[in-house]
């Protein structure tokens, strides 16, 4: 039997990259999926990919930072498919004005704001409050809100659910991203550990994936800015970036009963970057 037969998964950020890879991999294993994303066209494409595998899917326009949107997203799972077993919180941004797929803007920003740069102290003093707040509200607050919305349904339905948050090695290592991003991902790690303890008695497991550098829209500029890409890959013992399927397989393990004794854990598929 497939590993998620009869399960319904909600995936935030499911329109691209890691979220889409999870949606497709989960569908291959028998799940129906609900995609929440701020970009409608990529989310609709994920729905097509899932349906092509013979599973049901629906996309819901969602701003991860909105409590109302997260409530609506979770409600669609229960209203459309009758249950909500798995949540993956893959919606995320590397900077406040990040738009998945707009590679040129991201690359320009890396130069403009000195990511490759010369003067790290200046870079710190120029982190704006708007930048800090927006990155935090999508990555960290958005994770917590999606979990609250899903857990309300899991508790009401008596579902022994599994929640997989997407943190990052940047949550543990300062070299893996800009300050607001790293701090927001540290928060995702603590949200995961804290809620794992709170929800264990209800039979709901919460685990995180802290990926290394994975080939998605978010990291596409690394190949366009060779000096930055080389610097980051120098810290990866396996000497290559990961691919979304490697994260989706990790998420599948955490989402399924194969990980039944895991909760509050953070797994790092990262080619050996983070070995502590
Ligand atoms: N790619 C990597 O190397 C890497 C490494 C570690 C962690 N991550 C994390 O993995 C997650 C997925 O990133 P990815 O690499 O697949 O990037 P991606 O750009 O391919 O996908 C991110 C998705 O999140 C969506 N999104 C962004 N803001 C949103 C919002 N406010 N509300 C709803 N959806 C929103 C985007 O539209 C996009 O579909 C992110 O949380 C990212 O921080 C990525």
UniProtKB/TrEMBL annotation:
**Coiled-coil segments on the chain, per record:** none
Q: Which InterPro entries match?
A: NAD(P)-bd_dom_sf (IPR036291), SDR_fam (IPR002347)
GO MF, one term, reads: oxidoreductase activity, acting on the CH-OH group of donors, NAD or NADP as acceptor
* Similarity field: Belongs to the short-chain dehydrogenases/reductases (SDR) family.
What's the protein called, per UniProt? Unannotated protein
What organism is listed for this UniProt entry? freshwater metagenome
User: Lineage from the top down?
Assistant: unclassified sequences, metagenomes, ecological metagenomes
